[in-house]
């Protein structure tokens, strides 16, 4: 078992299996719990980073689609104006 983190104490305690200084818990158990918590935090940060990337991609797609929608609205407006002008000319000629 390798420890990524191991608590340092000023006075070494001979009772490593049930140290009274840490509430009677075994030092190895505390180290194991600390390491598991560290892994959980790494997974949590990884999940958050993945969601940030997903949100960034969705935002870029939204911006692109908004610009495209504005262009389509302009094209539709111009098409309607052309049809209106054409119909006006036909009515005037008749």
What would you say about this model in short?
The chain is mostly helical and 94 residues long.
Report on this model:
This protein is an all-alpha fold and 94 residues long. It has one domain. It has one helix and no strands. The longest helix has 67 residues, at 27-93. The mean pLDDT is 81.
Primary descriptors:
about 90 residues
> Residue share in helices?
over 70%
**In angstroms, what separates the terminal alpha carbons?**
96 Å
Shape: rod-shaped
Query: Cα-atom Rg, whole angstroms?
Result: 34 Å
Number of helices: 1
Structural class of the secondary elements?
A: mainly alpha
Give the low-pLDDT segments: none
Number of DSSP strands?
0
Order of helices and strands: H
**Biggest sheet character:** none
Residue-averaged pLDDT: 81
| Percent strand | under 5%
Give the number of domains. 1
SSE diagram, text form:
Blueprint: H1 27-93
